[in-house]
Amino acid sequence: MPNVRISGGMLLLARKRRKITQTALSERTGVPQTLISRLENSILSEIDDDQLARVAHELKFPISFFESNSENVNKKPISLHSAAFRKSASSSQKKIDFSIALANHYVFQIRKLLDVVDLEPQFSLPAFEIVDHTSGMLAENARAVASPEEAAQRLREILQVGPGPIENLTSLVEACGIVVVHADFEDVDVDGITIRPTDLRPIIFINRNRPACRQRFSLAHEIGHAVLHPFKTDEMELEANRFAAEFLMPRADILPDFRQGLSIPRLGKLKLKWRASMSSILYRSKEIRAFRDDEIRSLWIQLSSAGYRTREPEEFDISRERPRILRNLIELHLDELEYKVEDLARLTDTFAAEFEEMMELAPEPIIKGKK
What is the value of pTM for the model shown? Predict the structure, then answer.
């Protein structure tokens, strides 16, 4: 049988989507588990076409889904934001591969949907370069900034953001022509991924299973990568965090709020105002030295004792922001171009049910006993 080159990440993605183990997939298809494992771990990249047909049939994905002919299928991300991956990258490699494969599948779908429309962003996203303030480059280079905080301040000016909280960060980012996707990364501990496809603006993927305030910080973090990091550096994660904190909670704007002191109820009220987690607001107060270390330490202890480090009080929950560009692209195809969901699924190398789930088109299932 002739061999076919496939993407191991896409095989892993499809298997996890169907919630089937390697052992069960091998038993149902007759394909050796050793081959499945080696493909998923990128040790091998070829499978004969009969075996691929059986795997595709069992996993309910079209054969074209697994093939890695497109230059975008294995596009490496600018960033993959997760504390777990930073702590133990080697033990999480398969989860990283799954996350990247999922993001790249979205990229392929978005590219297809963009074939019929040109996005006209309201703002152009700038690129900044952090340079040593003593080098003399700040005065000569319009892109040069002395810190991530300065980049955040300049971006707020470019995007015409006034002082105070950003009401809808997702809408602001999409006004730059950046597609924001809320993706289901399942059990993978990833907050955000940014991919810069060839000939497209960056596409940002945010974990749809995270709390709304954490999604906002992750989105600001990813924007930091988009404007600061054309290539990877050792300091990029820290720089993106500093950018995000200043972009969402500018020092000059939030400092007056700290002059009234801090308590758990006060943190909750500030969360509703700044649309950031209580923990991130407390951490921000430490960054800008608004309180003594012992005062901040006491509040951390109170948050931990109340269980608020894991789940903050429901009365302080904020509403989720909903990305619109991808939904608008789908509605354009369905309403104006008279596509059906099945047509879009074929166009994007998947099946209708999978397409509906990825794009959040299907109604949420009714869970018995849950109000």
Answer: 0.86
**Cα–Cα distance for residue pair 154/126, rounded to 1 Å:** 10
Sorting pLDDT into bands at 50, 70 and 90, what band is 83?
A: low
Query: Which among 151, 230, 215, 158 is positioned nearest to 181, based on CA atoms?
Result: 215
Angle at 280 between CA 274 and CA 283, to 5 degrees: 120
- pLDDT single digits (tens) 275-319: 999 999 999 999 999 999 999 999 999 999 999 999 999 999 999
As a whole number of angstroms, the distance between CA 148 and CA 141 comes to 16
- Please identify which residue in the block is written with the tokens 């003399």: 136
Q: Which helix H or strand E contains 111, and what residues bound it?
A: helix 93-113
Neighbours of 166 (CB within 10 A): 22
Write out the two tokens for 268. Answer: 């909750």
| Identity of residue 336 | E
Residue 141 has a pLDDT of 64
- Of 166, 291, 283, 144, whose CA–CA distance to 227 is shortest? 144
- Stated as kind and residue range, the H or E segment containing 255 is helix 251-258
Cβ distance 258 to 163 under 8 Å?
no
User: Distance between alpha carbon 239 and the CA centroid of its chain, in Å?
Assistant: 17
